[in-house]
Design brief:
CATH topology of the largest domain: GMP Synthetase, Chain A, domain 3
Number of domains: 2
Strand order of the largest sheet: 4-7-6-5
Structural class: alpha/beta
Helix content: 10-25%
CATH superfamily of the largest domain: Fe-S cluster assembly (FSCA)
Number of helices: 4
CATH class of the largest domain: Alpha Beta
Bound molecules: zinc ion
CATH architecture of the largest domain: 2-Layer Sandwich
Largest sheet: 4 strands, mixed
Strand content: 15-25%
Shape: elongated
Length: 181
């Protein structure tokens, strides 16, 4: 009897998992296109697994910035496309709604990209992100144009609900501030 060849579905190694994370991290937030979903911190996990179909299947877990955010459908479609292009036909996108997303999850790189784009990144930490009983630490909002801390809020709600409109009292430029959530 000849050798029986079994096609083993070997567990994907760490490098395969990292590659899958990198593919998911190419997807950008539709509302702030300079930020990837990894920069924003809404990409929670990317896992390769065996769903019994095409192998390896990908499970992506993300926490939207707001529940019911219309951006979720766009991000989901973009994830399907990104993985399909990379040769992963089976993608499962799951939403984790608790704990709720906070701006604390935004990466340092994401904050730097926001500032370079002209949006002041969240200053301080959210209540949800700290230990229980932590107070919201409000810091001055830095002007993304001239780095002055002499800034003033014009309206609490800017172009989107997550942003407030500020003006710099030194260079006089108005700018969006991504609020601490
Ligand atoms: Zn300024």
């Amino acid at each position: 009897m000849g050798m029986l060849l079994l096609t083993e579905r070997a567990a994907p190694g760490p490098s395969a998992q990292e590659k899958a994370w990198a593919i998911a991290a190419t997807v950008c937030d539709p509302e702030i296109p300079v930020l990837s979903i990894a920069d924003l911190g809404i990409l929670r996990s990317v896992e390769l697994f065996d769903d019994g179909g095409a192998w390896p299947a990908v499970r992506v877990v993300m926490t939207p910035t707001y529940s019911g955010c219309p951006a979720v459908d766009t991000i989901r479609d973009d994830l399907y496309s990104a993985f399909a292009r990379a040769g992963y036909p089976s993608v499962h996108v799951e939403l984790a709604l608790a704990p709720a997303w906070t701006t604390d999850w935004m990466t340092e790189e994401g904050r730097a990209k926001l500032a370079a784009y002209g949006i002041a990144p969240p200053s301080g930490r959210s209540q949800a992100g700290g230990h229980s009983g932590a107070v919201r630490l409000a810091l001055s909002v830095k002007c993304p144009q001239c780095s002055s801390l002499n800034t003033r809020e014009i309206t609490r709600f800017g172009s989107t609900s997550c942003k407030a409109l500020y003006v710099c009292q030194d260079c006089r430029e108005p700018f969006d501030y991504f609020k601490v959530l």
